[in-house]
Amino acid sequence: MKNLSRKRPEKQLTQILSKHSGRNQTGKVTVRHQGGREKRYYRQIDFRRDKFGVLGKVVAFEYDPNRNVDLALIHYADGEKKYILSPIGLELGQTVISGSEVEAHVGNAMPMSRVPIGMAIHNVELHPGRGGQVVRGAGTMATILAREGGFAHVKLPSGEIRKIRDNGLATIGQLGNQTWKDTQIGSAGRARHMGQRPSVRGTAMHPGSHPHGGGEGRSGEGLKSSKTPWGKVARGMITRKRGKYSDKYIISKRKKKGRIK
Fold first, then answer.
1. Rounded to two decimals, what is the model's pTM?
2. How far is it, in rounded angstroms, from Cα 113 to Cα 81?
């Protein structure tokens, strides 16, 4: 666990994160069990890492209430300040840099064509120039298994092996805060501060509100498989669209138990 700074976040890198409480522009609830969280500021994070050849120095590690990974505040040699995701092994005072000819040190960003085979990476670009889109969660890392025909074969945290263009950027290292998955919320009040509203069991509702509802006393679901409030199978159903264009880039699918096809 890094020593997080207690200073206020950089004003030019933050903006108010407006509350929607799970509702759309008409006020209809589209995501249940959301609402009532405390005010937050959104930290603008540099997922692109496109300041090529400019040295940056790590000056602080900061908490981000919007994600499960801590942030590192970088002061670049040209005076610009940016936040990046903080990997394991990044230290205060350490320098980071982006480019195609940089060394494969923790915190440096480089094309996947230059990353050594088997090295841990994060913040991986699926489309070159668009910024990192995958491997951004606490404790996650990906590894490059091979390179062929302009593509890198990347093993993602889910176990999926996927072909990604090797001219896209990735950052060296495994992301920190890997014990986040063991966190216990501990109290209802803390859950409300986080924006989580109470969840009512379907079996406690009447049959007009939920497929599990109704019955006399504490009756069970009475169904072959659990259902969502809208009558869909709740557990194990594959939600990925069949015949998706990106299927051709998946070498090996992630393996999950108990799936319903």
1. 0.90
2. 28
